[in-house]
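Protocol step 4 of 5: obtain the predicted structure for the target chain.
Materials: sequence only (see below). No template structures provided, no constraints applied. The aim of this step is simply to have a reference model before the mutagenesis design in step 5. Sequence pasted as it appears in the construct record:
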Amino acid sequence: MNIYMPSMFGRLLAVLLCCVAVRAERPFFPFDNGLTDVKSVEEQAKLLKELGYDGICTRPPNCTPELLEAFDRHGVKIMASYVTLAPDPDKFPGNLEQHFMQLQGRGTLVWLGISNAKANETPAVETIRKTCDLAKKYGLEVVLYPHINFRTDTVERTAHLMKLAGRDNLGISFNVCHFLAQSPDGKLEETIQSIAPNLKLVQVSGANMIPEPKSDWNQLILPLGEGDFDMKRVFKTLDEVGYAGPVNLQCYRVPLPAKEQLNKSMNAWRKYHEQP
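Step 4 output (structure tokens):
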């Protein structure tokens, strides 16, 4: 008998249990673009609670006192707020502080995209720093959003800006659809691993493989579980790097009613997380 077999199985079991524990900790929540046909904030909160979502990603114009009150009442968190800014600290919006005041104490992530892919590095970095400093005043963390055609476009360029900004309340996200729109899918695992120490948010959706990277959202943004891109690769890599943070569902232009698409995605989410 091989005396090393029990210890080997013990290690494998420990790894499996660790992965299960990490998965169980990940909050799952949609972008508010998945709720465009649900006009009432009361009905939005009720639907997300009914389907089992942990929260929502809102944005400054939509984050009204009425929305906050309804979501608080139904126990649905404001997980993130999507903020897009021009790479110019002199054009920093004066009303952003009021928005951050609204979010204070909620654990909400400020999900920041910097527009204009051709902008100079220095004003982009200064805008990021200014956002982080204001967010810190209200106990908020900032997460950079890699978005095609933005100054924060590829993960690599976004991570570079993050390092230059040098703020301790600043991290980065990995967004599947924007990654596939800009990079070969074969680089997915190494890209996630490269930002793992600073990874604060992950965005997923179903997707089809496309011949070459481009912003083909009809193929790259589907309900979770649909399409021929193997999303298990993403979850496996997140398990391997020990990521237990929030996961956002991208719903941009998915041509289905909110309840139908969100229910499909939640069912797929549960299946992915039941698998060893």
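Step 4 remarks: The chain has eleven helices and eight strands. The longest strand covers residues 77-85.
Proceed to step 5.
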